[in-house]
Automatic annotation (TrEMBL):
InterPro entries assigned to the protein according to its UniProt record, in alphabetical order: FANCI (IPR026171), FANCI_HD1 (IPR029310), FANCI_HD2 (IPR029312), FANCI_S1 (IPR029308), FANCI_S1-cap (IPR029305), FANCI_S2 (IPR029315), FANCI_S3 (IPR029313), FANCI_S4 (IPR029314)
Residue ranges annotated for the FANCI solenoid 1 cap domain, each copy included: 1-30
Cited CDD domains: FANCI
Organism: Neolamprologus brichardi
Protein name per the record: FA complementation group I
UniProt-listed GO biological process terms: DNA repair
Start and end residues of each stretch annotated as Disordered: 1268-1291
């Protein structure tokens, strides 16, 4: 060893070579140093080359063994790398095989010597020829063989990262790189979870060479599988193979690596985003999190959010389409929910994904801004928010709110930003509805009130803008912060200051906001001694807050506080009617929740009422109407809503009286407070009794409202009389309610009620009569002032009360048919208001639970009334134009069912179980729903059993609408649903009434049911045959075979049926188009290594379904295009649907062109039949129908008059505009058929027959005949016109 060292130091190369040649192989490996061996082993000699090879063969395992120090091993590898280029080709090949064999047996776990392998492969690729087996290979080919062998073998998991790192330095062709990437991605599942992030990092570096999409897809797919496995294990309650927190932390690290790589390589970002643009099916919680992290890069922010927005809305639309079609559910049972992925990402982000949370906040607000409610016409918004998000846009907006709410709960750093942005939008978006942001803010307050108090300064800043915000926003905001006011004195004080300022605002909305705020405070700051919340049905959503920081001085402070507010509110009694109205509507709730304020409230109401009450008992009328109005110039306005004042007073008085009686039934009235209470109670009762007595005596002339009075809304006198009439009618209604409550079923009181009603009815009839005359704005029936409670009670006693002692008194009410009709109309009106706004006027109108109980009671009564008293026994059912009582009952039931589905979707079962049946909790909804359906089916069958003369179309339509609503509650898989369809089909087949409106309702019900049971194309074909049979053929010489599949289709209803059929055709085309688009995206993503579409005679089920659907549709449409439809909506709609049909056929042809190009598959036989069907049965008939439509339009030309001709010309253009579009779509279809014929080597054009109509040639004979007829008509008109020449020139 010493001699080798000395010779090496002296650089005596010849002597060193001579000495080395005398050593054996073992001596060389054991005793020499690497440097000396390299110097003494010239590659030109065989012995030197062999010695160098031996040196490499010895040093590589030595470095891997770990026996050497790291620095020494690195120096050796570095030296060997420098000398590699001197090795001969065979030596390099031997070294390459050595590396591959070592990797195969797992001897490269440390990876130290792998740094040498890229140098060996690079040198090997530079060799010209190498012997391989019995032949020769180029160095490049040999390198390829080595890589192939390496990637085909088994890798030790410990060396995967080292090998990936190594391949970064190896020059690879695209094919080799793909092979390597596939191998590395396959190894992911064999590695420990902690080794995944470094491997991801190395793979991303390797992707700089190419295969970027493959690398990203592989990483995403791995984590997608891990998430799915976690979910399965959690569902099966198994022990998790990988702890969830560990997996999430690894995912978070991997996301950071990918985002870092994307920042450096924008091509990587383009490949990543491109994959999600065509389809959202590849999305998963991990890829969503990755997208949100990428969104932090400014250049990709907008692109990512637009991509996610499109994926979300498309996912919701697809889900809606699938839920509405049995065909799509059977073909594609699973649905990929992007919304659930995003919510999963929010849940996952709790594991330290700070780089994702900011993107989640942005996404939430992006969705709420993009898909929130939009302002209606003239900036108006619909009142109330629906209980269930139904449309895709509503669902997307709701998703945004869920993301922000969950983010607020989980991540402290983003709470301030979320709150600030929500409040900013409430303040700035004054022109748009902000109900969705109010709902979010309310949810935040409810879920985390104490957290929100940390940011109370932001809420206080928002209060400063209250007087400038729309009233709806103020109401929602104050309702939302209500729980906070109980725990934060500073917040309450800030609000009071703002409200006091708003009370003197110059803006009406500002003052109304102040009233809203003060009323809210009065409801929620209880004075000591007030009734418990259970006694007053308190519905405050503050159960989450059990602490009240004011508890020590509640009784004194709250009482002074509330009385101070009341004194502020009294100022409102001199303001506009709208402000007063809000006060009257709020006083009842205040009293009910804070009964100790009764004295102040009742004294206020009493003094206000006395201003408009005539104390002289002999004077009529008992109310002063003059002070109730005010004039400004020529305009007359309502100043005092007297009826609402009276209504508020009555409700407060009666509630207080009932409450005191139930709380202290035997108490003495000696106490001072009770004496005071008794004072205003007796005063009010006296006033109400006097008003009742005198109002019964009043004639319309006493109010100057007799038949001769003017009620035109175009004049100030008419406006004043209308205001008076509405006030008087309201007073009558309030007095009726007051007398009914205190009557205790006294016959005399009920007679007084009927007397009051007769005067109300007389005035109402005059208003209706006057509103039908003149050109001014028509009169709208004033909203009834009856409360929901009294209406519910009234219809119950009118129809269901069988108590013997009440019989005589109730007969007074029941015998007055107009009164019964009036009460039923009020029921319908109240339910309509509830449906539209979510609440009703009067007490308990805002209380959802009580309102629902009233709905249940009314449902039971209306159902009993309709089913037990046949409409045939009612007087004037047919003679009068107005609705019968049975129809009013049906209308009420329809509105109740619709409202319940919309506002109380979870309580539908409870509503349907109000008939008193008893059944198990699980089956009650199902049983009762079908019970109601059977009842209404019987009623409709009874209607149809009589002759057409006795048929009540309106009632039948209402029954159909109710059946349609109730059928939505049936499960499509249930036997009851099948029975419902069978019954509907039977009715359609057997009913032959010539009523278009009834036909439309019945067929709509049939289609809506049928599409959830199976595809409706067979049904459409039968209906088209019936329509063709009834209306005849476009060729008058052809006699159509008489068919009658459905008797409901007759001469009068055929056009209506045709329009419904075409709308259903459009729906089927939507589904077919969706299926083709889905198949196209699958074909595009499965281009690599995918089998042909049709193998071994089997066709893809989706393609088969598309072909069959289109085949039946073409047959149905061929019937319609031969039908002599009337010119107008029917022909225009048919031409439009034909155009769309050919467009979708073209899309299908393009799909098969794509299949032929990418997969070289043969065309299915069914598709060829479809093409043949289109060419033989549809296209020729389309051209015939075009000619028919043009001739029909031409001969509809009116007598020559400039005005008539111009309107006819516009109508002609409108009705024939679709013809060129249809011809173009047919020609596009044929054009792509030619392309497909060439690609598939199948002559599809043999089925197409070119038509002469495509040349747009003028038929000379037809033109001459038409012109001759026109000239004749002009000559006739010229003889009776003074300036015929001018008219002719204009024409």
């Amino acid at each position: 060893m010493d001699k080798i060292a000395s010779l090496s130091n002296e650089e005596n190369i010849p002597e060193l070579q001579k000495y080395l040649s005398t050593l054996t192989d073992d001596q060389v490996c054991n005793k020499c140093t690497v440097c000396a061996c390299c110097l003494g082993s010239p590659p030109s000699s065989t012995a030197g080359a062999n010695r160098r090879l031996l040196l490499y063969q010895h040093c590589i395992p030595l470095c891997e063994s770990g026996d050497l120090q790291t620095e020494v091993a690195a120096d050796i590898i570095g030296l060997l790398m420098l000398e590699t280029h001197t090795l001969s080709g065979p030596s390099l090949a031997t070294l390459g095989s050595l590396f591959v064999d070592a990797i195969k047996v797992g001897k490269m776990s440390s990876g130290k010597s792998l740094e040498l392998f890229p140098t060996v492969l690079t040198a090997l690729a530079a060799c010209e020829a190498l012997s391989y087996g019995k032949g020769e290979l180029s160095g490049e080919e040999y390198k390829k063989q080595l890589i192939n062998s390496l990637c085909s073998s088994r890798w030790d998991p410990q060396c995967v990262i080292h090998l990936t790192t190594m391949f970064r330095d190896v020059p690879l062709s695209s094919e080799e790189l793909q092979f390597v990437v596939e191998k590395v991605l396959r190894m992911f599942n064999k590695l420990d979870l902690q080794e995944i992030p470094p491997l991801v990092y190395q793979l991303l570096l390797l992707s700089a060479k190419g295969c970027k999409k493959q690398v990203l897809d592989g990483i995403v797919e791995y984590f997608k599988e891990q998430d799915a496995r976690q979910e399965e294990e959690s569902l099966d309650l198994e022990v998790q193979s990988i702890p969830q927190d560990q997996l999430r932390h690894v995912e978070g690290t991997a996301i950071l690596h990918i985002v870092f790589a994307i920042r450096l390589d924008h091509e990587l970002a383009r490949e990543f985003l491109k994959g999600f643009k065509t389809s959202y099916a590849d999305l998963c919680p991990f890829s969503v999190a990755l997208l949100l992290s990428v969104a932090r890069i400014q250049r990709y922010e907008e692109q990512v959010f637009e991509l996610l927005k499109g994926a979300i809305i498309k996912s919701f639309k697809d889900e809606q389409l699938q839920q509405g079609s049995k065909l799509l559910q059977d073909l594609l049972p699973g649905h990929c929910s992007v919304a659930q992925m995003i919510l999963d990402t929010v849940q996952n982000s709790v594991f330290g994904w700070d780089h994702v949370t900011q993107g989640l906040v942005q996404l939430g607000f992006f969705l709420m801004d993009a898909f929130g409610p939009k302002p209606g016409p003239f900036g108006k918004t619909t009142e109330g928010s629906l209980a269930v998000a139904r449309t895709p846009t509503q669902q997307a907006c709701k998703l945004g709110g869920q993301v922000l709410l969950q983010g607020f709960k989980m991540h402290e750093p983003i709470r301030g930003e979320i709150l600030e942005q929500v409040l900013n939008r409430l303040v700035t978006k004054t022109a748009s509805p902000v109900s969705h942001f109010l709902d979010l803010f309310s949810d935040i307050v409810v879920s985390a009130p104490m957290i929100l108090l940390e940011s109370s300064s932001k809420v206080t800043e928002t209060f400063d803008h209250l007087s400038y915000l729309p009233l709806a926003t103020v109401q929602g905001l104050l309702k939302a912060v209500q729980p906070l006011l109980k725990v934060s004195m500073s917040l309450k004080d800030a609000l009071i200051l703002v409200l006091r300022k708003a009370m003197f605002s110059s803006q009406l909305d500002g003052r109304k906001s102040a009233v809203t705020g003060f009323l809210l405070l009065l409801k929620n700051f209880k004075v000591l001694g007030s009734l418990a919340s259970s006694q007053c049905s308190q519905a405050i959503s503050s159960s989450q807050i059990q602490v009240d920081v004011h508890s020590r001085y509640n009784s004194a402070a709250n009482e002074a506080f509330c009385l101070e507010i009341l004194s502020s509110l009294r100022r409102c009694l001199s303001q506009q009617a709208d402000v007063r109205l809000m006060l009257y509507e709020g006083f009842f709730d205040v009293l009910r929740r804070n009964s100790q304020l009764a004295s102040s409230i009742m004294q206020t109401l009493l003094s206000q009422l006395k201003r408009y009450y005539e104390p002289e008992q002999d004077l009529l009328p008992p109310v002063k109407l003059e002070p109730c109005i005010t004039a400004h110039g020529d305009q007359v306005y309502l100043q005092e809503p007297l009826a609402h004042l009276l209504s508020c007073t009555v409700h407060c008085l009666m509630w207080l009286q009932n409450t005191r009686q139930s709380a202290n039934p035997n108490a003495d009235d000696s106490d001072g407070d009770e004496e005071e209470e008794e004072g205003y109670r007796s005063d009010l009762h006296a006033i109400l009794e006097s008003m009742t007595r005198r109002m019964m005596k009043c004639e319309l002339e006493d109010f100057e409202l007799d038949k001769s009075a003017e009620f035109s809304m175009g004049s100030s006198v008419g406006v004043k009389n209308n205001i008076y009439a509405v006030l008087v009618m309201g007073v009558y209604e309030v007095l009726m309610e007051y007398n009914f409550i205190k009557a205790n079923y006294s016959k005399r009181c009920f007679e007084e009620i009927i007397e009051l009603f007769s005067r109300y009815h007389k005035l109402s009839e005059i208003l209706k009569e006057k509103s039908g005359k003149g050109r001014g704005p028509s009169h709208k029936t004033p909203r009834s002032l009856f409360s929901m409670g009294i209406i519910s009670t009234l219809i119950t006693v009118l129809f269901r009360d069988n108590t013997q002692s009440r019989e005589e008194a109730l007969s007074v009410l029941r015998s007055n048919g107009e009164f019964v009709r009036y009460i039923l109309s009020a029921v319908v009106q109240k339910i309509q208001q509830l449906d539209e706004t979510g609440h009703t006027d009067g007490p308990d109108g805002q209380n959802a639970d009580k309102t629902f109980r009233f709905l249940c009671d009314m449902t039971s009564v209306l159902m009993w009334r309709y089913t037990n008293i046949p409409s045939v026994v009612e007087e004037g059912g047919k003679k009068e134009k107005r609705s019968s009582l049975s129809q009013l009952c049906l209308e009420g039931l329809l509105r109740i069912f619709t409202t319940c589905q919309q506002r109380y979707p979870d309580k539908m079962a409870q509503l349907l179980s109000t008939m008193g049946w008893t059944s198990s909790e699980k089956a009650v909804h199902f049983v009762m729903n079908y019970f109601y359906i059977r009842q209404f089916q019987r009623a409709l069958f009874t209607q149809l059993s009589g002759g057409e003369e006795d048929f009540n179309s309106k009632e039948a339509q209402l029954l159909i609408s109710i059946l349609s609503v109730l059928s939505r509650q049936l499960k499509p898989s249930s036997q009851q649903f099948v029975q419902m369809i069978t019954w509907t089909v039977k009715i359609c087949k057997e009913t032959s009434f010539e009523d278009s409106a009834f036909c439309k309702g019945l067929l709509s019900l049939l289609f809506n049911l049928h599409v959830l049971y199976k595809s409706p194309v067979g049904l459409l074909l039968e209906l088209c045959q019936d329509i063709h049979s009834e209306l005849g053929d476009i060729d008058q010489d052809v006699e159509v075979e008489k068919q009658s599949n459905f008797a409901i289709v007759n001469m009068k209803t055929a056009s209506t049926a045709a329009l419904l059929v075409l709308s259903q055709v459009d729906r089927v085309l939507d589904e077919v188009d969706w299926l083709i688009a889905r198949k196209k995206s699958q074909t595009a993503s499965d281009k690599l290594g995918c089998e042909a579409t049709q193998t071994a005679g089997r066709q893809d089920p989706v393609e088969k379904a598309v072909t069959l659907q289109l085949g039946t549709l073409l047959t149905a449409l061929s019937e319609l295009v031969q039908t002599a439809l009337l010119l107008g909506t029917c022909t225009v709609t048919l031409l439009r649907e034909l155009t769309r049909t050919y467009t979708i056929l073209t899309t299908l042809v393009k799909y098969y062109i794509q299949v032929c190009v990418s997969q070289h598959g043969s065309l299915p036989a069914r598709f060829e039949k479809l093409v043949k069907l289109s060419g033989s049965h549809l296209t020729p008939q389309c051209y015939s129908f075009i000619t028919y439509a043009q001739v029909l339009a031409w001969f509809s030309c009116p007598a020559p008059s400039l005005l008539c001709f111009s309107s006819w010309k516009a109508k002609l253009l409108r009705e024939t505009k679709a013809i060129p579009n249809l011809i173009f779509s047919i020609e596009q279809y044929e054009k792509y058929l030619i392309t497909l014929s060439k690609k598939s080597k199948v002559n599809l054009m043999q089925y197409m027959k070119l038509s002469t109509s495509r040349d747009f040639r003028i038929n000379a004979a037809t033109l001459d005949a038409a012109l001759q007829e026109q000239d004749d008509s002009q000559e006739v008109s010229a003889s009776s016109t003074q300036e015929p020449k001018q008219k002719k020139r204009k024409q």
